[in-house]
Amino acid sequence: MVVTFTRLGRRFAAGLAGLAIAAAPALAQPTLAPTTLAEAWLAVLEAEPEPVTWSHSVALRHATTERLPQQRERLVEELATLVISARVAGNAPLAAGLAAWAEALEEDDPRMARTPGRFDLPWLGANLRQDPPLARLAHWGRCDVPDWVEVWSLAGVERRPWRSGIDLAALMDGLPAAATRRADHAAVIDPLGQVRRLGIAAWNPETTPLAPGSRVMVQLPGPQGLRGALPFPGAFPFPGTTIESELINERLPAYLATRLPGDDCTLQGKGEEG
């Protein structure tokens, strides 16, 4: 019996050794690199103790990157036409405000961008089919929550201090009259890149809370409003300027929705275009 148990013990020990040898290569393999954004976020959480502010997390798809330089160039061209029209019509304040829009766009780096939408880990975890492969992203990351709200008004571009409880109505009330003269609507772009068109005139007042890092564009008045804003009737719009103003109202908010929702951002480039 002793011999029998000894033989069984040797066989058992040999079996364990064989399993250990077979498992060794698998245990020795390095951790696989993340291939999707959700996996990359999990790696960030494992490596960094600080919590992530998901409301200001971003990602930029290669498909978005390709279009941005052309979009910015087209906006600058349309604004140049409107600036000339306003100057000829004698509306120097409006011309200066739109020139400031064009200057801000010219100084902007279209590559420092984000694709509008949600790219935070909680949302991706609940929508795994929307989890993008890293190979399709130019970069991803998050921005520190800023202390401003950016305003593109008819008087130019400025950043107003953000404070708890501020909403669109309060922001508009704090602007000079020239910044919103005869404007009926504003486009509100939240930190996720979502765009909402809300009324700001006396006849259609609407409001919404503003998160830090939001952008607000006072939309150009329609033809009737622009004519009334000029010193003599019938001078504006000149042929073609109605189309330009409509294009600005439609496309500038869409471009602003691709801007990063903060100044201090941690971005990581992963993968190749595909």
Automatic annotation (TrEMBL):
<dbReference type="Pfam" id="PF06251">
    <property type="entry name" value="Caps_syn_GfcC_C"/>
</dbReference>
<feature type="domain" description="Capsule biosynthesis GfcC-like C-terminal">
    <location>
        <begin position="160"/>
        <end position="220"/>
    </location>
</feature>
<dbReference type="InterPro" id="IPR010425">
    <property type="entry name" value="Caps_synth_GfcC-like_C"/>
</dbReference>
<keyword id="KW-0732">Signal</keyword>
<protein>
    <recommendedName>
        <fullName>Capsule biosynthesis GfcC-like C-terminal domain-containing protein</fullName>
    </recommendedName>
</protein>
<feature type="signal peptide">
    <location>
        <begin position="1"/>
        <end position="28"/>
    </location>
</feature>
